[in-house]
Specification:
Order of helices and strands of chain A: EEHHHEEHHHHEEHH
Strand content of chain A: 15-25%
Structural class of chain A: alpha+beta
Shape of chain B: rod-shaped
Strand order of the largest sheet of chain B: 1-3-2
Distance between the termini of chain A: 60 Å
Largest interface: A-B, 70 and 62 residues
Helix content of chain A: 25-40%
Order of helices and strands of chain B: HHHHHHHHHEHEEH
Shape of chain A: elongated
Number of helices of chain B: 11
Number of helices of chain A: 9
Radius of gyration of chain A: 31 Å
Distance between the termini of chain B: 118 Å
Structural class of chain B: mainly alpha
Largest sheet of chain A: 2 strands, antiparallel
Number of strands of chain A: 6
Oligomer: heterotrimer
Strand content of chain B: under 5%
């Protein structure tokens, strides 16, 4: 190893008193635990381990015997230390691990710019019909598209909170009426549906319709 | 080469015979001698150059003025040990034996008179010296390289989980895409020829949705409550048209139980539920 | 997103002035960079990225345009912040990355008792020859080592991504030319080949006290 081990300040070394009770005896061990060093070891282990580390595993990292409350105190101190950083110490079922903060994920995504996913033509056309012809039933949509509308398409749009059922039509089967939501307007940055592009100039439309194909 | 071979045979009793005796390495297993400490030592040599360097360093020989007789003798001793112990002896070791003997014999020959050609007067050991030094340089470099802290051996790389629970990426939709989707439909349905979509019609459609939404959570509402007090006059008109349109599409029912009494609006669903 | 992004203290937000000069124009953009947030994003990215991150990649993490000195200043601050922790920020050949401190390895090894095996001398000598004499053919390596190079040795180094074939020599048989990779430098925590240990001078080799025996 080329780098020397830095001595850690003695001032922060504490003495951990530990009482280990077994069935037959009580062992009292006084061991000096270098807390500063141990904290650095914990950090290094938590940062480099592929899997979460259990308290048992963390105990093994110490030369001196340490008990669970002691380990948990150390973990709390580490968690506190990283409170305002880009990562956080997390307790999961199998132990403790660091993770990047979920709210930063959107920024980290910039590193691996995946092509943004696109909705299928069926989804887009269904959404367009609901937006321009609301309220409409599934039957209406099928009439206009000329094909069946799969339940998955409507589910996709409902899951996105872009459409919702606002009633039923009083015809046999009581079909549900779909309409668009405020969420859609927000996501499209529109104040009202009337701000959707008008479709009055038919000449342009035909040209555009050819251009907008898949 | 033939001349040299003849000269080689004189001082050599054992190894030359073994140079061409390679098949002996395939002796049957029952002649195998159990490994001992010597085998361990011998098997750590990386090859003839490594063995020669070891001998030179061990016996404090001068690399720049190698006493060939001594070195060759030492080397042959090890080769013999290896062969006696059935160590798998790479052909390179035997080749090196030949080289050493060749150099030794050339050094025994009187130096040819200078002909002006520098190379011909070169020390016969020069090439071996160069190889030994170059190999030793790389051997030391390999040692130093191995001393460098190595990822996974002397330090760990940091592996922090990226929280993947929030990464489900949803497609974005632009107004243009929505418009294009609608245009595709219009083109396909060939309704573009006689169907004119007016801008205000959308407002009516939007208002129809709003009214239905208000009715969704109540059995019935009063007619007036469907109109926002602070709405503009055009908006009031649009709302009124929307209500009429809903009634026309039999989506709502408008009732008035007595003249000049309250007008109530309810969805047809509410009616059916009664 | 489940957790709200904490607003960062305005006091630490700075204005990054940037002058972007192109062939035909000079654009001066004044953009407010949230330094606290950006530092957390850098941390999260550096901690969670599998590979070292280049300055170019780090720049992409910022919404506002930032220049290289700015990124380097941030990196210096992050390195400083972790100066007394169990991990350290390093600059290596392909960028910046965190690693556990080598002096703690002896402790971390307690978690994983099986140490990765050290490479054989044959492997290390072959690696040294490729590193210091690149590009070299297998024949070159055999010339220097005085023995055959087993295919297994080269395979071991290729599997570790430490060497690669970068072409062929224009001699009969078109032997492959081997060179070392950035991965080797990264794994040895080096920025460039020039940081490799200096070769011993031939003169020193003649000094017999220098013998690097077996």
């Amino acid at each position: 190893m080329s780098e020397p081990v830095e001595p850690s300040p003695l001032s922060e070394a504490v003495v951990a008193k530990q009482h280990v009770a077994t069935a037959t005896q009580v062992v009292v061990s006084d061991q000096s635990v270098d807390v500063v060093l141990l904290k650095r070891i914990f950090e290094a282990a938590l940062f480099s381990s592929q899997e979460p580390l259990s308290v048992t595993e963390l105990k093994r990292l110490s030369d001196a015997e340490i008990d669970t409350p002691f380990v948990e105190k150390m973990l709390a101190q580490i968690a506190e230390k990283y409170a305002d950083s880009g990562v956080e110490l997390n307790r999961v079922a199998s132990g403790w691990r660091f993770r990047s903060r979920p709210e930063l994920q959107v920024h980290l995504d910039k590193l691996n710019p995946q092509k943004p996913p696109r909705y299928s033509r069926a989804v887009m056309e269904t959404l367009a019909i609901i937006a321009y012809r609301q309220p409409v039933t599934r039957g209406d949509i099928e009439d206009i598209r000329g094909v069946n509308v799969s339940p998955q398409v409507l589910k996709t749009l409902e899951a996105r909170s872009w459409i919702e059922v606002i009633g039923t039509r009083d015809t046999p089967g009581k079909p549900e009426l779909f309409a668009t939501t405020q969420q859609l307007l927000d996501d499209l940055n529109l104040r009202s549906l009337s701000e959707l592009p008008a479709l009055s100039e038919m000449g342009n439309l035909l040209d555009q319709s050819n251009a907008g194909g898949n | 080469m033939a001349e040299q071979d003849q000269q080689l045979q004189l001082p050599i009793t054992m190894p030359v015979a073994h140079v061409h005796g390679l098949p002996m390495m395939e002796m049957p297993q029952d002649l195998y001698i159990p490994p001992d400490a010597l085998e361990v030592v011998l098997s750590t040599f990386q090859g003839p150059l490594d063995l020669l360097l070891y001998l030179i360093r061990k016996h404090n020989l001068d690399v720049l003025d190698i006493p060939m007789a001594q070195l060759t003798q030492q080397y042959m001793g090890y080769i013999e040990l290896m062969q006696n112990n059935r160590l798998e002896l790479a052909a390179e070791y035997l080749l090196m034996a030949a080289v050493l003997i060749e150099i030794k014999s050339r050094m025994l020959l009187p130096r040819p008179p200078k002909v002006g050609d520098e190379e011909s007067t070169e020390d016969p050991r020069a090439e071996l010296m160069r190889k030994l030094l170059e190999y030793e340089q790389m051997k030391l470099a390999a040692h130093q390289l191995n001393e460098l802290p190595q990822a996974g051996r002397d330090f760990e790389l940091v592996q922090v989980l990226i929280e993947r629970t929030v990464v489900e990426r949803l497609p974005n939709v632009s107004v243009e895409e929505l418009r294009n989707a609608w245009l595709m439909l219009l083109a396909r349905a060939k309704v573009n020829a006689n169907h004119k979509v007016r801008r205000d019609e959308l407002s009516v459609r939007e208002q129809m949705t709003k009214v239905l939404r208000q009715l969704r959570d109540a059995d019935y509402v009063t007619f007036e409550s469907l109109f926002e007090h602070e709405a503009s006059i055009p908006m009031l008109v649009v709302t009124f048209i929307a209500i009429l349109e809903l009634a026309k599409e039999t989506l709502i029912e408008i009732t008035q139980t007595e003249a000049l009494g309250n007008i109530y609006v309810r969805t047809c669903r509410a009616i059916t539920l009664e």
